[in-house]
UniProtKB/TrEMBL annotation:
Belongs to the purine/pyrimidine phosphoribosyltransferase family. Pfam families: Pribosyltran. Its EC number is 2.4.2.7. Its main location: cytoplasm. It comes from the Eukaryota. This is adenine phosphoribosyltransferase. SUPFAM superfamilies: PRTase-like. Pathway: Purine metabolism; AMP biosynthesis via salvage pathway; AMP from adenine: step 1/1. Homodimer. The gene is Apt1. It catalyses: AMP + diphosphate = 5-phospho-alpha-D-ribose 1-diphosphate + adenine. Residues 59-179 form the Phosphoribosyltransferase domain. InterPro entries: Adenine_PRTase, PRTase-like, PRTase_dom. GO terms for cellular component: cytoplasm.
Amino acid sequence: MDLCHVPATREKGWYLMLMAPNVKGPNYAWLDPSRLYCHPQGLQDCVADLLLPFQGDPIDMVAGIDAMGFILGAAAASVLQKGFLAIRKAGHLCVKTEAQPYTDYSGREKVMEVRTDAISPGLRILLVDQWIETGGTMRAAIELVERLGGVVAGVAAICIENSEGGQWIQQHYKCSHCIPPRLQPRFDHHQ
């Protein structure tokens, strides 16, 4: 699909066909969603689908996870007319931070940080990332928000895989993702 075409019928997830498969080998994610961000209607519909389950819910702020979660998170914050908080990989914030170690989807040990002056007790935060594969990155973000007294109002991602970590997140938090149920097994098996 080209980046200007908009299908006549746009059912949930139509924009998933804009994503590109990995052509660079095993050191990269199996699928690249960044192409769908280039499509104006695709990005709008993706964000609308992510936010639909949270309509009417009290949300005070949207937090996006470094780095691709910044795109969807900032777009969601704009639609909701809320502020946006960047949850960063360690070493990028020059203010006082709270840190949380985690293991990412590739098995690498990392540390995530959030500024301590942005989350006050009871602040309801919608956490947004591009993809939840093993759940390690999102669980670190959840830990940071809750340690600072914030409340996780929900979790949104293009895909939440049916991994052990993905299941844990879906069992404990209100979640939204864009994968139709009939396609979920293909995404879980990286097909």
